[in-house]
Design brief:
By secondary structure, the protein is of the alpha/beta class. The protein contains two helices and five strands. It has a three-stranded parallel sheet. The chain has a two-stranded antiparallel ribbon with strand order 1-2. α1 crosses α2.
Length: 107
């Protein structure tokens, strides 16, 4: 099969489309260096894109929170649950597309 490589990367913009610069090839032992990514809730499809790219980069967990300056406001636990379910589906699709052997926890 195809040989997989792990790279360190730098996120240079958060606009759509995201720009990620690969910086260096890492040894195979560093395959899952990204632990947990924390990100404020973003409007539109930006949270989806962050979730997708973090999954492709190997994040083990992706946590979104409602920052005081977030434009997005979740009215109740039902809204929060719907968003988490959608982002979990985004992570699952990204893991499948990038041939990851695990799907990160999304919350």
């Amino acid at each position: 099969g195809a040989r997989r490589s792990t790279f360190s990367a730098r996120l240079s913009t958060v606009a759509v489309p995201c720009r990620i610069r690969l910086e260096a090839r890492l040894p195979e032992a560093a395959r899952s260096l990204v632990g947990t990514l924390c990100c404020a809730l973003l409007k539109g499809s930006k949270s989806d894109e962050v979730c997708e790219k973090a999954t492709e980069l190997g994040a083990q967990a992706i946590l979104f929170w409602q920052a005081s300056r977030s434009v997005v406001r979740l009215a109740d636990d039902n809204d929060r649950s719907k968003r988490e379910t959608r982002l979990a589906r985004v992570a699952e699709a990204a893991a499948k597309q990038s041939e990851k052997d695990y799907v990160p926890r999304v919350g």
